[in-house]
Amino acid sequence: MSRSARWTAVVLIVFVALAVALWREIGTDRTTAPGSPEEALTARDHRDADTPAALQGPRAAADLPPCPRPGPQPGPPALRGITLECAGNGELVDVAPALAGRPVVLNLWAYWCGPCTDELPAMAEYQRRMGTEVSVVTVHQDENESAGLMRMAELGVHLPMLQDGRRLVAAALKVPNVMPATVVLRADGSVAEILPRPFAHADDIAAAVNPSIGVPG
């Protein structure tokens, strides 16, 4: 092989290597659409940075109550087999049995969602009014667990929070890809309502939720 041919071969090899590296970089950095199949493959429940040690401060600031504990009933069939972290204390929760035995309002949200931020205090007020008749459980649908906890701290909202960066609950219950969204579960675990819209006041929540679960508003 002549010298010029050898140089041509070297240049081609370098060019191909650079092209492959660029393709890999683009593939790694591309932004995936929320709820897309690509996101489902890459999403995590929380970031690597959200270690137990790193979450101590945000958890203390948020001061959230513990998540419901599993009871003897199996709970919503669609949620069986899903285990999530309770953001308030880091314990793992078997979601389906934890949501069984009484009506539950699941509030699906994310820390960066403006309407979610507006709605959370109304959810907290609704829970205060309903007492033990209904359980309001929030489901944080972003892998930045620290940010979710700090948002709760900023709002002064003290509701149980499941950390669901992979949006497993929404997928299992076939909730539209919007936030906030509210899922109302009857005591037997069946879905009474899926409400993909924000609420501004506790009165609005009661009017939308209570008739479907048979509790006074």
Automatic annotation (TrEMBL):
<dbReference type="InterPro" id="IPR050553">
    <property type="entry name" value="Thioredoxin_ResA/DsbE_sf"/>
</dbReference>
<keyword id="KW-0735">Signal-anchor</keyword>
<keyword id="KW-0413">Isomerase</keyword>
<dbReference type="GO" id="GO:0016491">
    <property type="term" value="F:oxidoreductase activity"/>
</dbReference>
<dbReference type="InterPro" id="IPR036249">
    <property type="entry name" value="Thioredoxin-like_sf"/>
</dbReference>
<protein>
    <submittedName>
        <fullName>Thiol-disulfide isomerase/thioredoxin</fullName>
    </submittedName>
</protein>
<feature type="compositionally biased region" description="Pro residues">
    <location>
        <begin position="65"/>
        <end position="76"/>
    </location>
</feature>
<dbReference type="GO" id="GO:0017004">
    <property type="term" value="P:cytochrome complex assembly"/>
</dbReference>
<keyword id="KW-0676">Redox-active center</keyword>
<dbReference type="InterPro" id="IPR013766">
    <property type="entry name" value="Thioredoxin_domain"/>
</dbReference>
<keyword id="KW-0201">Cytochrome c-type biogenesis</keyword>
<feature type="compositionally biased region" description="Basic and acidic residues">
    <location>
        <begin position="41"/>
        <end position="50"/>
    </location>
</feature>
<dbReference type="GO" id="GO:0016853">
    <property type="term" value="F:isomerase activity"/>
</dbReference>
<keyword id="KW-0812">Transmembrane</keyword>
<feature type="region of interest" description="Disordered">
    <location>
        <begin position="29"/>
        <end position="76"/>
    </location>
</feature>
<dbReference type="InterPro" id="IPR017937">
    <property type="entry name" value="Thioredoxin_CS"/>
</dbReference>
<dbReference type="Pfam" id="PF08534">
    <property type="entry name" value="Redoxin"/>
</dbReference>
<keyword id="KW-1015">Disulfide bond</keyword>
<dbReference type="GO" id="GO:0030313">
    <property type="term" value="C:cell envelope"/>
</dbReference>
<dbReference type="InterPro" id="IPR013740">
    <property type="entry name" value="Redoxin"/>
</dbReference>
<feature type="domain" description="Thioredoxin">
    <location>
        <begin position="72"/>
        <end position="214"/>
    </location>
</feature>
